[in-house]
Design goal:
262 residues; alpha+beta; Pnp Oxidase, Chain A; seven-stranded antiparallel β-sheet; globular
Length: 262
């Protein structure tokens, strides 16, 4: 019995000295830098909440050719810059009626409430009117900011070249509705669609277009009321005729002065 007790005590002592778990291995500075470099270069990073990889701009979107997808982050930044300093101010001033045509495409402003800031955000978008609704598409996929905004708050305002209204935005999930709306929507965007290698929407069948647009959310906006447009009180369209009139007056005064000198 004494021998058995000594063996038991010896085994218990070994168990007490042995660590319960193996300590985590510290990553070397070189390995950590290599991992961080992969993430910075655009490798998918898994979300801590969902475990799903975050998607890069334009990734896995059939609409864009392979050679264009690598430039999508830069294109996104360029579009943001042009929209902020050119497209949005021009459309707010009521210039949409002069900017929109079958060649360059038709533009509207979709005004959403920022999901983080709570402030109204303006996005210039191509659009088409089908039935009693206005349709637009999130061209950069599900990461598009205005799309994330309407999922938080679907109440929006729409400023078209000829009218404005408030409405409710909803993503289209019905395949038949997408099949009917996507062809005229892409054609309304003018030559930019074909020039970027996205195909010719005038020659492709509706099925081919729908397949090409997989991964690009289609959004429907139905009117719920009236909204103030650029030509209404508080709008900025008045600047356009004021500037044109001032320039015309200066030309007339200069022309009259030249005639007197003769």
């Amino acid at each position: 019995m004494a021998t058995a007790d000594k063996a038991a005590d010896k085994a218990a002592g070994k168990a007490a000295r042995k660590p319960a778990t193996k300590p985590a291995t510290r990553m070397s500075g070189k390995a950590a830098s290599k991992t961080a470099g992969k993430h910075a270069a655009g490798a998918p990073v898994r979300s801590a909440a969902s475990g799903a990889p975050s998607q890069a701009w334009g990734e896995d979107l059939a609409m864009y050719p392979d050679w264009l997808q690598r430039y999508m982050p830069a294109m996104h930044e360029a579009f943001n810059y042009v929209n902020r300093y050119l497209s949005v101010p021009a459309l707010r001033a009521g210039m949409g009626k002069y900017m929109s045509n079958p060649v360059s495409g038709y533009l509207m402003i979709l005004r959403t409430r920022g999901r983080k800031s709570g402030e109204m955000r303006d996005a210039p978008l191509g659009y088409v009117i089908q039935g009693d609704a206005v349709y637009c598409m999130a061209g950069f996929g599900r990461q598009t900011n205005w799309l994330l905004n309407i999922h938080e708050d679907p109440k929006v305002e729409v400023i078209l070249p000829g009218r404005s209204f408030s409405g409710v935005a909803q993503e289209v999930t019905d395949d038949a509705e997408r099949l009917a709306v996507l062809p005229p929507l892409l054609r309304s965007m003018g030559l930019i669609v074909g020039s970027l290698g996205m195909g010719n929407p005038w020659k492709m069948t509706p099925t081919e277009i729908a397949r090409k647009c997989e991964g690009l959310p289609l959004v429907r906006v139905r009117s719920t009321g009236i909204a103030a447009g650029p030509e209404d009180p508080g709008g900025k369209f008045w600047v356009v005729p004021a500037v044109v009139s001032a320039l015309g007056l200066l030309w007339l005064l200069r022309h009259a002065g030249n005639r007197k000198r003769r």
